[in-house]
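HOLO CASE FILE
Compound: S-adenosylmethionine
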Amino acid sequence: MASLLGYCRAGYENDLAEELTVKASALQCFGYPKFERGSGYVQFVCYNDTDADTLGQKLPVIDTVFARQLVVITDELNDLSREDRLSPVLDAILKHDDESVQNGLLQVEHADTDAGKDLAKFCRKFAVVLRQALRKNRALTFKEKKHARALHVFFTDFDECLVGYSYAQCRSPHANGIFRLKFPSAAPSRSTLKLEEAILSMLSAKQQQQVLRAGGRAVDLGACPGGWTYQLVQREMFVEAIDNGLIADNLMATGLVEHFAADGFNYKPQFGRVDLLVCDMIERPDRVAKLMGDWLVNHWADHAIFNLKLPMKKRYETVTLAMADVLARLQKLDDSFVIRMRHLYHDRDEITVSILRE
Ligand SMILES: C[S@@+](CC[C@H](N)C(=O)[O-])C[C@H]1O[C@@H](n2cnc3c(N)ncnc32)[C@H](O)[C@@H]1O
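Model generated. Tokens follow.
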């Protein structure tokens, strides 16, 4: 049976399984999730083979919370011989090859787990030989085409893999669905990478220019030691940094940052409003979501990017419940909003939400 494969952070399989079940049924596609805890992936097995393809075309990974990548799986290969893995994988791809569809990319991937990382070197080598063989058989374009369908081979062990494809409009552009970033040495905390990934992966280039414009104003709630403020200052924004702790000296020295030792739940912007509110306070997700709603509804901020810290269990349900109230309040306004919720690669037990006013 065809399935939709979702990659996720190890330990989040249950949350992704729940989410895929809800989102597939909203698209009238039915099936059941299959996963092993800690494996870093979930297969949503469809009762109807065409449903997996429908999900592959209609469920963008960016519209999910817990998926890093989504792939339509056509074959599961087990007991691959270590002498010749190429032939069965190639046969599986060619068997499903539809000449009307052009494959412009190949990804040979593995889960983001310790076991998966052991496969990384092998995957890289296998990609080279498979790419050559596919091109020889006219099943892959000679030049990479980022806007064409991509072939995926996902190794779950040295002798097991899942074979499938993804559509350009729905997939993550990154190998293994992981957006890797280099830590900027002048940033005061690794948290900076969470906001950088959020900006680069959740906002279009145009939205980045509008929301984070040079000379614009931002509030950073729970700002210390300043990793998120660093991202805003890099974009030449003026920042009101709210926290009882200390902000790194190099940020204060820019003259763009004002530090207020205040409670983020009571703070109001110095000039009545800001372009962007960011918030990384460690607090209950429903409290943070409500606070973000207050700022947006009252026009204290045009846009918001924030983290919701997640509990150990029922994380999908917690996110849905925490966001339900703010979504209902925003819907009553005349403005429209683009809302994304993502469990980013640089997030830990938290998700990042962006709410942009259009
Ligand atoms: C995860 S850290 C923020 C890290 C920061 N985003 C960075 O990149 O460096 C959470 C911060 O929230 C602050 N915090 C927690 N509750 C707060 C509140 N009610 N008001 C203001 N700050 C708060 C803590 O003092 C802590 O510095």
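CASE NOTES: The chain is about 35% helix and 25% strand. The domain at 3-177 is CATH 3.30.2130.30 (VC0802-like).
CLOSED: yes
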